[in-house]
């Protein structure tokens, strides 16, 4: 066991990174069996915080790089076998049941040899567990007869030590292989889920939301892993039960059948519980899916919630779902109370029934020490399989639900390669012939009878009003839609720029390279062409700046330009560009067209298909395709289309403290009641065994001619009464624990949600969403299900250990002298282990978040990934993040085995001491006391090991409570409501005044706004302009206090906005934000989540924003279900819904933040007219890239580098010929047009 048993090892290349070889490779047999080779990590973790580099690497065969491909191969074989069987069954009309490919068969074929190896270890460990009671029996016989020569007694003591030590070594090998195999199964399943997610058809993506797919990976794959870890109990538990019963038969004869009858009676009870648990599991899974889905949307749309002051409304929605979860959890808890009662009472009832029948069969039957304590040891062994069997049966039932969900997902429809011919060789780059498409096979065609031929190297514009099918044309070219009829052909590789830019959570350079090799000269050329060089100067670390999740720390325009740069750098043959100019300034858009897309740009010789709203670009096009209601309305060159219609624009697009915190949430009343219940349970348990011991001593002096029959009956009655009392204490303890744990779960979840919603927006911009969701899923799962279970077991075990030591110490006082140094060693080992284990668990926790983040990121950008053909690269990245987690799990498993071997060895020494002292005591000790002491000693090995393990698990799992509570101490936004509240009609005039205002996004960043001073008049229309990064959106963020002041103040109608609550402020302002964010739910809920307005008012605003006809055409109208992220509406329609919100919420001040960037010019004009009419009596601040929209403003505020450079009427600014005039000139807006 020496910590120096660490073998030297050579450095080796492991997959793609240089890693150390696993030290176990070169370790000796003894070191492997005792895990001494891992001592270096344990000692290192005690001395300093462990880092990833300190951990041992996986064996190559255990890595995700090896496991995933092998399993995928078996899954493909299973799919093919199923298809072949279906083809055979198709010839038999009576065969109607179609069997899906089985995940279980594929897993068995992949892991069957290692599972058999695990089973063999378990068999040997089980056999050895039954050897100990038989040796104890011989020791009791030895003590009863006490021969003069006592060497046989020492032999028995030594044999007992050897057997329990061998059992320890074999059991720990079983645990090690068992846990690692279960982890490999989880890894394999995650790999398959990830690969499937990249291949899903649009129909399948509608069926499974991002939250549901993430839940499959996190919860269902975990459930499968948990079951695998306990799977051997399905056969091991019955095997142990049969072994115990057969040995009990030898002791008590046919009387043991009474105990078997009790066991048989319990089986239907467990079956009933398992059925109920299955139903509850299904219900709980649905609730968890709903919560994750809503949380995912809330966190991704958190800015909208804050701008509209909707946090409280969505907080209630989450809490409603959470209450449903807790109701299910309560039902499951009460079932657990019932299970706990039956499981605790089973050993007692079995022994009571067996002893009772034993007496009834023959009045001369006497319970000797040999019979009682051998039987009690066997009953103790029987307790574990009796406890485990129903649990594992229940787990099988629950996992069946997870398996069904996984198989349902894995067997869903994939994108059909036949949707598009990619191996086409011909004249044109892209061709549609009589092609119709829908989002699913049975759906209504979205695109109808397309006949388009796009020559190689052509520049093509796809235009049309909002919802006409422009973006769908690009999806059809990508093969993302279901082809109903016709032919689609595509030649060469593809690069895609989505309408909503998809940005990865990595450095900016990696976002652009996207897996390609760095070519410095071309890279610099791409940066310059995509107008990114000025942005790199502003970013803290240039192109090495870490970009937050979904690109939260860069502007909308920067996101689109990074997305375009990624496409350009890829060097593809075909470029599909979905409105890349929507979120950039006019002059930037002009540069992008000239230097990237146009006839003199980098892509001049490539095939380019551009969805655009920009009318001025159309004369530059080789071909224009005008879409209308899913059909090609017109097609030709600019001049051909111009000759067909006078108005071309008609076609244009529209720890201790932590544990204390948990106990406070639990409730101190429930805590003390729980302790009292478990103390009572353990005291009664000790009393039962002491009663049996006294009974045996008395029985030795009785014979059949005394009143023994009456005494025996009384003894049995009292034994039965003690058992019933124990059952009552167990039941009470389980019930109290369920009530307290529910209270703790509710309190901690509510606090977590409240803390998260009160965090400032900058937190969400700098922290991965996956990490926050992890708090609500993984960490809350541990708090809900596991932590109170560990706490209960630790308390119970602590009392059990104390009781055991006191009983043995009372019988053999010298035993206490042996226990003291052993306890010191126990605590030393625990201290070393806990220090390292906590850090390994933290590393494992940190390695889980990247899996979820990478998965969510992939699901968001799946169209882009598929378009670029980078599926394999992302699959490899997934293997890498999963493998990192697997390395941490492996080290955690080995650290547990290292601990178990050492603790059980010390426990084995205690058994040896107890046996040795019994032999040394000679005739001075009764055989009944010997039996009691050794049976308790045999139990203490398991109890002490269990005690230390649960103490460690409590400490390591307390990390989850720490994570859930960590948001408490973070800087929060100002209170939603403060004691000072504005008048109900505020603001009445709409006068906004900035006085020497300064603001920065974070303390470590420079000022985003500098010395801003200006004042609006009531009902004035102010246009706010400036180049990208000038501070336009920051100005609106400051009005809503999304960004707090660094100096100065903002006064609205005489009230300093820093003196009132955020909801009082944000609820009285109105905004149409830059990004059109919608949430899943009904259209009505998206318009009016607070349910404040009537249907009539909703229809009125829909008409005003030109959505009424569209909504009336929907089957469910206002109750039309919006999919996750509003994906079933076009971006333009989503923007119009945001306009409708503003019209509904009408207040005295309106901020338009680039609100019409995603709609066509015609709709833009209608919207602007509506805004001018409906908000004529309001102050309007318009932030726009399209200078047409602010040209008729009363005054224009021009920003540059966070400062006001100009603030005058448009006409005066034109006369001054400053920055505003320069921007107008770049946009092609003449002075004559302005004057008009």
UniProtKB/TrEMBL annotation:
Residues 430-654, 992-1226 form the ABC transporter domain. One of its GO terms (molecular function) is ATP hydrolysis activity. SMART domains: AAA (SM00382). InterPro entries: AAA+_ATPase, ABC1_TM_dom, ABC1_TM_sf, ABC_transporter-like_ATP-bd, ABC_transporter-like_CS, ABC_transporter_C-like, P-loop_NTPase. The chain crosses the membrane at residues 154-171, 255-274, 332-361, 718-737, 801-829, 905-922. It is found in: Vacuole membrane. The keyword Transmembrane helix applies. Belongs to the ABC transporter superfamily. ABCC family. Conjugate transporter (TC 3.A.1.208) subfamily. This is Multidrug resistance-associated protein 1. It comes from Neovison vison.
């Amino acid at each position: 066991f020496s910590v120096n048993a660490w073998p030297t090892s050579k450095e080796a290349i492991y997959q793609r990174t240089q890693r150390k070889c696993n030290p176990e490779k070169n370790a000796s047999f003894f070191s492997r069996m005792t895990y001494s080779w891992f001592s270096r990590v344990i000692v290192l973790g005690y001395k300093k915080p462990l880092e990833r580099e300190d951990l041992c690497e996986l064996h190559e065969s255990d890595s995700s790089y090896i496991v995933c491909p092998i399993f995928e191969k078996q899954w493909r074989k299973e799919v093919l076998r199923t298809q072949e069987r279906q083809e055979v069954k198709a010839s038999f009309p009576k065969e109607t049941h179609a069997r899906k490919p089985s995940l279980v068969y594929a897993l068995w074929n992949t892991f069957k040899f290692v599972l058999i190896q695990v089973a063999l270890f378990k068999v040997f460990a089980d056999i050895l567990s039954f050897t100990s009671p038989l040796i104890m029996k011989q020791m009791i016989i030895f003590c009863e007869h006490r021969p003069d020569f006592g060497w046989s007694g020492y032999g028995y003591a030594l044999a007992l030590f050897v057997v329990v030590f061998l059992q320890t070594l074999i059991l720990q090998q079983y645990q090690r292989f068992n846990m690692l195999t279960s982890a490999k199964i989880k890894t394999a399943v995650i790999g398959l889920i990830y690969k499937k997610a990249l291949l899903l058809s649009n129909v399948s993506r509608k069926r499974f939301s991002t939250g549901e797919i993430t839940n499959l990976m996190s919860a269902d794959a975990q459930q499968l892993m948990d079951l695998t870890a306990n799977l051997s109990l399905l056969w091991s538990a019955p095997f142990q039960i049969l072994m115990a019963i057969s040995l009990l038969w030898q002791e008590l004869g046919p009387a043991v059948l009474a105990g078997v009858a009790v066991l048989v009676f319990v089986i239907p009870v467990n079956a009933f519980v398992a059925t109920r648990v299955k139903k509850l599991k299904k219900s709980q899974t649905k609730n968890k899916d709903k919560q994750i889905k809503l949380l995912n949307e809330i966190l991704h749309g958190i800015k909208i919630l804050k701008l509209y002051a909707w946090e409280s409304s969505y907080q209630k929605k989450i809490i409603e779902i959470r209450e449903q979860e807790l109701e299910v959890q309560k039902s499951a808890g009460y079932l657990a109370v019932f299970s706990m009662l039956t499981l605790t009472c089973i050993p007692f009832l079995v022994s009571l029934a067996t002893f009772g029948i034993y007496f009834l069969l023959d009045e001369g039957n006497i319970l000797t020490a040999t019979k009682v304590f051998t039987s009690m040891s066997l009953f103790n062994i029987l307790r574990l399989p009796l406890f485990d069997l129903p649990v594992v049966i229940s787990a099988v039932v629950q996992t069946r639900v997870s398996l069904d969900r996984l198989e349902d997902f894995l067997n869903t429809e994939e994108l059909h390669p036949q949707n598009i011919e990619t191996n086409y060789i011909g004249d044109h780059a892209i061709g549609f012939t009589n092609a119709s498409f829908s989002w699913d096979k049975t759906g209504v065609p979205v695109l109808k009878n397309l006949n388009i031929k796009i020559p190689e190297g052509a520049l093509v514009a796809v235009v049309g009003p909002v919802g006409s099918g422009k973006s769908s044309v690009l999806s059809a070219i990508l093969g993302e839609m279901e082809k109903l009829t016709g032919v689609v052909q595509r030649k060469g590789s593809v690069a895609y720029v989505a309408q909503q830019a998809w940005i990865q959570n990595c450095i900016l350079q990696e976002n652009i390279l996207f897996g390609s090799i760095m070519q410095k000269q071309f890279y610099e050329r791409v940066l310059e062409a995509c107008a990114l060089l000025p942005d790199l100067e502003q970013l803290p670390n240039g192109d090495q700046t870490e970009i937050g999740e979904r690109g939260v720390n860069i502007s909308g325009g920067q996101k689109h330009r990074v997305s375009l740069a990624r496409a350009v750098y890829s060097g593809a043959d075909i470029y599909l560009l979905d409105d890349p100019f929507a979120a950039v300034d006019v002059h930037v858009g002009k540069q992008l067209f000239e230097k990237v897309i146009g006839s003199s740009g980098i892509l001049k010789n490539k095939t380019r298909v551009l969805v655009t709203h920009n009318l001025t670009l159309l004369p530059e096009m080789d071909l224009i395709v005008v879409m209308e209601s899913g059909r090609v309305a017109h097609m030709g060159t600019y001049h051909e289309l111009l000759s067909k219609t006078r108005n071309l624009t008609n076609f244009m697009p529209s720890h201790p403290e932590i544990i204390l915190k948990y106990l406070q949430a639990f409730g101190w009343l429930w805590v003390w009641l729980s302790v009292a219940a478990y103390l009572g349970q353990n005291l009664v348990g000790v009393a039962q065994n002491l009663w049996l011991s006294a009974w045996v001593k008395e029985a030795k002096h009785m014979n059949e001619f005394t009143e023994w029959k009456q005494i025996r009956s009384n003894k049995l009655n009292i034994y039965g009464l003690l058992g019933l009392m124990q059952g009552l204490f167990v039941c009470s303890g389980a019930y109290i624990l369920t009530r307290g744990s529910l209270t703790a779960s509710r309190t901690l979840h509510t606090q977590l949600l409240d803390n998260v919603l009160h965090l400032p927006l900058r937190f969400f911009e700098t922290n991965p969403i996956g990490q926050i969701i992890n708090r609500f899923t993984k960490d809350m799962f541990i708090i809900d299900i596991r932590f109170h279970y560990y706490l209960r077991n630790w308390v119970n075990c602590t009392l059990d250990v104390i009781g055991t030591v006191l009983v043995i110490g009372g019988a053999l006082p010298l035993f206490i002298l042996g226990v003291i140094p052993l306890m010191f060693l126990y605590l030393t080992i625990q201290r070393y282990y806990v220090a390292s284990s906590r850090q390994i668990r933290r590393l494992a926790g940190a390695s889980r978040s990247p899996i979820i983040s990478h998965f969510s990121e992939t699901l968001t950008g799946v169209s882009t990934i598929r378009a670029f053909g980078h599926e394999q690269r992302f699959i490899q990245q997934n293997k890498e993040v999963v493998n990192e987690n697997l390395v941490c799990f492996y080290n955690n498993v080995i650290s547990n085995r290292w601990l178990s071997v050492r603790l059980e060895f010390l426990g084995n020494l205690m058994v040896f001491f107890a046996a040795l002292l019994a032999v040394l005591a000679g005739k001075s000790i009764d055989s009944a006391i010997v039996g009691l002491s050794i049976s308790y000693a045999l139990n203490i090995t398991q109890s002490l090991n269990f005690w230390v393990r649960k103490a460690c698990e409590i400490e390591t799992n307390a990390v989850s409570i720490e994570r859930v509570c960590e948001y408490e101490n973070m800087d929060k936004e100002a209170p939603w409501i403060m004691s000072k509240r504005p008048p109900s009609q505020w603001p009445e005039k709409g006068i906004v005044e900035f006085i020497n205002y300064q603001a920065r996004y974070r303390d470590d960043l420079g000022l985003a706004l500098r010395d801003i001073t200006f004042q609006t008049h009531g009902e004035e229309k102010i246009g706010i302009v400036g180049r990208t990064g000038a501070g336009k959106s920051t100005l609106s963020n400051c009005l809503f206090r999304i960004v707090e002041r660094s100096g100065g103040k903002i006064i609205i109608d005489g009230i300093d906005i820093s003196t009132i609550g955020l909801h009082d402020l944000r609820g009285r302002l109105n905004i149409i934000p830059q990004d059109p964010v919608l949430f899943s739910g009904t259209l009505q809920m998206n318009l009016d989540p607070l349910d404040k307005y009537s249907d009539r008012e909703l229809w009125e605003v829909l008409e005003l924003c030109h959505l009424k006809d569209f909504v009336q055409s929907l089957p469910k109208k206002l109750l039309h279900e919006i999919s996750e992220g509003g994906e079933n509406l076009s971006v333009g329609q989503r923007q119009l819904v945001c306009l409708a919100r503003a019209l509904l919420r009408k207040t005295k001040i309106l901020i338009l933040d680039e609100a019409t960037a995603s709609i066509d010019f015609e709709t833009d004009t209608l919207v602007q007219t509506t805004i001018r009419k409906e908000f004529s009596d309001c102050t309007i601040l318009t932030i726009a890239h399209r200078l047409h929209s602010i040209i008729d403003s009363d005054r224009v505020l021009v920003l540059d580098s966070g400062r006001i450079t100009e603030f005058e009427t448009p006409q005066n600014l034109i006369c001054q010929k400053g920055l505003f005039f320069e921007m107008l000139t770049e946009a092609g807006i003449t002075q004559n047009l302005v004057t008009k």
